[in-house]
Amino acid sequence: MKWIAPALAYLAVFLGLFVFHSAWAALLGFHAAIIGSLLIARPGIPLATLLKSSNKKWIALSLLVCGSSGFALFFLWDVFGIARDLPSQVEALGLNARTWVPFIAYFALVNPFVEEYFWRGYLGSATRGLHRSDLLYAGFHALILIHKVPVVSIVFAVVALALAGWFWRQIAREENGGLLAPVLGHMAADFTILIAIYRMAT
C-alpha cells in the first residue's frame, strides 16, 4: 500500500488538473486519495500526533524558515520565469475572485494536516539522510508547475521541496514523531506562497 498510495495521490492531481481542469478537483481528489489510502492501510499513528510538540524552538524554526517561501516567490517572480499568462491559466482552473479566498483558506488550514500525516507520518522515516518519501512528496508538485514555469524552475522547485520534506521529517524525528511543528511550517509555506500567487496572478 505504501507504493500504491503515492501513485493514487499523483493520479488524483493529474486528473484534477489535466482532465477536469479544476484546482479544486485536483486538491480534493488528492486529499480523497490520501485519506482513502490511510483508511485502508490503518497505519495506527494517533491523530493527536498532528498536535504534538515537545519543544517550541522547532515550531519557531519551522515557521520562520517555511514562512519565508512566499516572500521569496514574490520577490523572485521574474527570476523563476513564471508564465505571463498565469492569470488566465489559474482562472481556467476555476480560481477567480469568488473562489480564491475559500481555496486559500482550505489549502492553508486543511492541506498541511493531511500531507504531514501522510508524507511525514505514514510514509516517513527516522533516517537522517534523504528518504524516498521526501522525493515522492516533492515530485507531484512538478505536475502543478507544468506550463507555468520553465523546466529549470520546475527542477529547482522539486529539489527545494524535497529538502523541505527532509527538513520537516528531521523536525518530526527530533520531536519523537510529533508533527505539530511540520504542520505549522507547512501551513506558513502554503499560505504565503498562495498569497504571493494571488497577488501576482489576479
Structure description:
The chain has 202 residues and is mainly α. The chain has one domain. Helices cover 70% and strands 0% of the residues. The chain is built from eleven helices and no strands. The chain is globular, with a radius of gyration of 16 Å.
Count of β-strands: 0
- Helix tally equals 11
Structural class: mainly alpha
Radius of gyration: 16 Å
- Average of the residue pLDDT scores: 97
The end-to-end span amounts to 40 Å
Give start-end ranges of low-pLDDT stretches: none
User: Residue share in helices?
Assistant: over 70%
Shape type: globular
Multimeric state: single chain
Largest sheet: none
**What is the total domain count?**
1
The fraction of residues in strands falls at: under 5%
What pattern of helices and strands is seen along the backbone?
A: HHHHHHHHHHH
